[in-house]
């Protein structure tokens, strides 16, 4: 491994050799320079700027962005159509250069809140207000890892003075090398957390579940997903690198996500892919139906068998599969749906899981799919519009980006946009020594209020465990 000064000298020399490839005098658009990074990154470094990261430990993949070459925001029912137009303009005028032939591309973050409507002032304020309702974020510095190889991506708006650009990018490289040289924080013993209260509390939760069950009996809803928020306070400020390392360790099969624009960091460790589009190939996860885990192999196997056999859990899962299948049937050919769900086993919960796929038709795109798929019955309910309207009226908190989605967009060689978007679950807003955790449970005919409360408790405990080590 190169020493920090040697690494910086190497990167800055390569920058000086290749920066002349960029069309700096071009009026409008963006240019990206992609350079090999002679160090494999497994976690994103902390550079002290607004940034984001997506890390999948099991797949050995990382995308991280820092700084802001550009951003576009939107809200309301047409938010993704607005960002589609911005993204299409971006890729038409995005000049990318990969002199080291890394095979990576420049990328942007696409993310959006659970509801397209602006937050309502009558509800308690929440840190998610730091994030716009929907966001397309093109970072100035990008980092990528795949199959044991890493690269960096430097991006600038055009036109730009070559000398100014060279100095700015040399500065980014210096910050990056300094951050890479910083030692990883030592693991700490778990620190106790103090609960600051749940919204709703248990009594209000039980009343909400009973109200939801009454709507289901009346036939206006088949399912609705209620969520609650738990405030926690630590005995020390939560260290972001320790927190993300703990989440990656606890949830190697999940996408670990971090987004920070101002003071609050938004983190998630989600098993659920909203949609992945590569070329014309589409993949979607249907996840619904949950059981706990056990340290005893025999007890754990019994919990899995009970989950597979549960009529209530299988009905809840089938609703999600049917909803996803209906969207794919409208937008794709060669739709494939498993004959029966599998079981996805995570650190302290297991879920019924069906991976669906198809081939995207020429007259549609990932923005259409994301608009049609989100929110699925797994996080909202069924029928989609009725469940969303009921939650808007009844749920006592703003979800912000919890149960929204976020992921990476990047152009492929043909000029199409590839994307990998994830539903924001096992989600927390972290600032200093305080955190607000979110979890939900699907309410269907036969749901028991206390059982659903316990289910949310299992999900909250997953992130709380990581916070204890942060």
From TrEMBL:
It catalyses: chorismate = isochorismate. GO terms for molecular function: isochorismate synthase activity. The keyword Isomerase applies. Residues 204-459 form the Chorismate-utilising enzyme C-terminal domain. Its EC number is 5.4.4.2. Keywords: Isomerase. Belongs to the isochorismate synthase family. This is isochorismate synthase. The lineage of its organism: Bacteria, Pseudomonadati, Pseudomonadota, Gammaproteobacteria, Chromatiales.
């Amino acid at each position: 491994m190169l020493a920090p000064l040697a690494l910086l000298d190497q990167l800055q020399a390569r920058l000086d050799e290749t920066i002349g490839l960029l069309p700096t005098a071009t009026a409008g658009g963006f240019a990206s320079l992609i350079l090999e990074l002679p160090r494999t990154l497994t976690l994103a470094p902390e550079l002290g700027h607004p940034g984001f990261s997506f890390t999948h430990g099991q797949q050995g993949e990382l995308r991280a962005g820092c700084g802001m070459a550009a951003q576009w925001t939107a809200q309301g029912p047409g938010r993704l159509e607005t960002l589609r137009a911005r993204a299409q303009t971006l890729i038409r005028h995005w000049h990318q250069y990969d002199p080291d032939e890394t095979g990576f591309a420049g990328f942007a973050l696409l993310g959006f809140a659970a509801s397209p409507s602006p937050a309502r002032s009558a509800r308690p304020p929440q840190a998610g207000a730091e994030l716009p309702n929907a966001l397309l974020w093109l970072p100035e510095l990008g980092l990528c890892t795949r199959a044991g190889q890493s690269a960096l991506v430097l991006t600038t708006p055009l036109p730009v003075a070559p000398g100014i650009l060279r100095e700015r990018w040399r500065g980014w490289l210096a910050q990056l090398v300094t951050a890479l040289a910083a030692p990883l924080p030592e693991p700490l013993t778990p620190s106790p957390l103090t609960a600051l209260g749940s919204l709703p509390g248990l009594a209000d939760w039980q009343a909400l579940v009973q109200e939801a069950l009454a709507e289901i009996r009346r036939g206006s809803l088949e399912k609705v997903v209620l969520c609650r928020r738990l405030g926690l306070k630590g005995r020390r400020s939560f260290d972001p690198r320790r927190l993300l390392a703990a989440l990656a360790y606890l949830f190697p099969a999940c996408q670990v996500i971090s987004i920070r624009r101002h003071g609050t960091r938004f983190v998630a460790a989600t098993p659920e892919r909203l949609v992945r589009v590569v070329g014309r190939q589409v993949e979607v996860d249907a996840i619904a139906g949950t059981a706990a885990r056990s340290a005893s192999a025999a007890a754990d196997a019994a919990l899995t068998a009970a989950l597979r056999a549960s009529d209530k859990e299988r009905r809840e899962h089938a609703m999600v599969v049917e909803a996803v299948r209906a969207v794919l049937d409208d937008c794709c050919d060669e739709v494939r749906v498993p004959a029966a769900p599998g079981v996805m086993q995570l650190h302290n919960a297991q879920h019924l899981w069906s991976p669906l796929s198809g081939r995207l038709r020429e007259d549609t795109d990932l923005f259409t799919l994301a608009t049609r798929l989100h929110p699925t019955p797994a996080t909202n309910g069924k029928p989609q519009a009725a469940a969303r309207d009921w939650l808007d009226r009844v749920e006592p908190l703003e979800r912000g980006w919890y149960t929204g989605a976020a992921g990476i967009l990047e152009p492929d060689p043909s000029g199409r946009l590839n994307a990998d978007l994830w539903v924001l679950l096992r989600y927390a807003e972290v600032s200093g020594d305080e955190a607000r955790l979110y979890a939900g449970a699907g309410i269907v005919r036969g749901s028991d209020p206390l059982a659903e409360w316990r289910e949310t408790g299992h999900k909250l405990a997953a992130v709380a465990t990581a916070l204890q080590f942060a």
